Amino acid sequence: MQSAGFGIAVDDFGTGYSSLSYLRRLPLTTLKIDRAFISELPGNSAIASTILTLGKQLGLQIIAEGIENKQQLDWLESHGCGIGQGFYFSEPLPLAEFEKRYVVAQPSKVGL
Q1: Which of the chain's ends, N or C, has fewer CB atoms near its CB within 10 Å?
Q2: How far apart are CA 75 and CA 42, in angstroms?
């Protein structure tokens, strides 16, 4: 799958059924830090910091879920997490609204 460009992510890492054993058994590319640990930032940062360090040492991409404010984003960026999602960036959108806001139309190259 990786040679075809697909990756495997562990969603909500650190909660529920996400286990450290997955880090050894699966060919993971990404860890997504659960929003429960992001919501406590920047004050209670021990778990988010540990997940970031662990992911970096394993060569995994880290995504922070549930970013709701600038302080959380600043903390994550200062600790090397450059990918995030959450209401700070946008509320959930219908497809048409998402495309209107974020998809840039590319000029057609047909006939060139």
Answers
A1: C
A2: 6
Q: Which residue in this structure is represented by tokens 């659960």?
A: 34
Q: How many CB atoms lie within 10 A of CB 13?
A: 27
pTM for the structure as a whole: 0.78
> Which mean pLDDT values do the consecutive 10-residue runs of the chain (112 residues) have?
79 72 83 93 94 92 96 96 94 92 75 58
Which residues are paired to 62 by β-bridges? Answer: 31
Segments making up each domain of the chain, as ranges: 2-102
Task: Write down the architecture of domain 2-102 according to CATH.
Answer: Alpha-Beta Barrel (3.20)
Say if residue 81 is exposed, middle or buried (CB neighbours under 10 Å; 0-12, 13-18, 19+): buried
